Amino acid sequence: MPQNATNEAENLWLARALWDLGAVRFGDFTLGRSTVHSPVYVNPRRIISRPAVLRRAVRVMAGEIAADAGRLNPHFQPYQRVSGVPIGGLLLATVFSLTNRVPMLYAHTSAAPRSGNHAIEGSYEPDERVLLIDDLITSGGSVEETASILRNEGLDVRNAIVLIDRGEGAAARLRRIGVGLTSILTLVTMLNYYLSTGRIDEHLYRKCSEYIEAKRSEVES
Fold this sequence. Notes:
Blueprint (H helix, E strand, L loop, with lengths): L2 H8 L1 H9 L3 E8 L3 E8 L8 H20 L10 E4 L3 H13 L3 E4 L12 E2 L7 E9 L3 H12 L3 E10 L4 H7 L3 E7 H10 L5 H19 L1
Helix pairs in contact: 3-4, 7-8
């Protein structure tokens, strides 16, 4: 079994927690600018109401990063700072920074309030490497925007980690700008788990899977 498949199987606790928190919904949703008529919606920000889940999620992210470094993953590079992608990523990055004692930066993206003329809040040195953190990634646009702001200020961004990748082509998009993506779970893995445990039926599973595959094909074509 591939390493990433093993890791996802070990992290199905997160799929259970999100389900129990009501963070997974089915219907007809518009997400951002490009994801329309999605039959599934996931809101990982709900984990802030469960401190134990939030702490565990951050521990798993830190463990995955350490594992990538230990495997000498050529796509993973050491980092000196972390930065959360607004809005959900800011919550995770703050907890990550506190628990792992890694300084945090705050980039003023279009989704983040701006104060004064500063593009970035926090102290840093030129060429320092920044790890991007987000809760969920769809098209990759928000991560790309954050990376661009940090890079424009002389910082080095090569990696991003997210709790959930919806699997709609974000990894390929980020590769094109030199950012490697690590995810704790994919939406497809979550759907497989919900189907196998009777939480959703075959019809809903197929509808969601076909939607995700169609969106991925749009981005990667």
